[in-house]
Amino acid sequence: MAGKFEKTLSPSDVSQKLAVPTEFIGDQYGGGEHLVVMDCRRNMYEFVLSTRRQGPYRKPVFTRDWLKYSKDQQLQAGQTIYFWKNDNEEFYRIQVLRDLLGAGPK
């Protein structure tokens, strides 16, 4: 996988599942991967990255703990998240950009 992405959230991202940019998964992705994710408060989540099994477009999405994260953070459509993995860590990180910039409601 490419390792990082930034995304402005849509209403369905917040209430159902997060549509992941296709570039994030690369060409070698097989599907159903479990990703351990830590937020800025050091809470741990397990996202499942899956794609469509049929059709020309893979449409990757995060499921499982994604909705828990969305509710815990009180995410809203229009907010932007940043998702990445540091080379020396076994887990991914996620942060709402308002947290990085110190602006917006918490």
From TrEMBL:
InterPro entries: B3_DNA-bd, DNA-bd_pseudobarrel_sf. One of its GO terms (molecular function) is DNA binding. Keywords: DNA-binding, Nucleus, Transcription, Transcription regulation. Coiled coil: none annotated. This is TF-B3 domain-containing protein. Transmembrane segments: none annotated. One of its GO terms (cellular component) is nucleus. It comes from Rhamnella rubrinervis. It is found in: Nucleus. Signal peptide: none annotated.
